[in-house]
Predict the 3D structure of the following.
Amino acid sequence: MRNLLLTVLVLVLTPSAGAVMISADADGFDDGTYISTAFAGITLSSVGGYPGLDRLVYAWGDGLASTGTSVFANNLPFQRQWYAGLTDDFAFRADFDQPADYVAIDIIGDNSADIGVLYAYNSADVLLESVTSDVLGYGEVFSAAISRSSFDIAYIIAGGAPSTEDTVHLDNLTANVIPEPATLWLLGLGGLLLTRKRKMLG
């Protein structure tokens, strides 16, 4: 029992040792399927002041997809386009159940010269870091990534850059997060069982 508690304590105190990669991708869903809550550890939403935006995220087939055949979409007439503007925006947001130290999303140009942006925020809604894509041609993909020294990313927002008022397509979200407490317990239990098995075999 002492070994189990020690293993769990070590995992809790050193999150990077037990961090897990989670992901969200629109592939495998029919066009128009609601996918805001389809992925473990992540909640997707559409945010902004554009009239009629329903704050949900859907899957939609797209020949510009960076992986598979579908991308993240909203309920607006131009479903696959995202814009992270000021008041009239329709931006993509992903909230993580547990904080992350790394996030990445594919930004895809849908015109001859597009620029996209990825913002990372902490749980107090403070902007931690942002990354802006290069100028993207039609169908060109930029894998926007933010890496932090601690697990402090609570959510991200992505879309076309406000400075250029571009729209972009988005695909293939990944994040490295601290596991849920129950997962940490199972990791600790697994470590204990391995230790006991070694002792029995040795």
Observations:
- The radius of gyration is 19 Å.
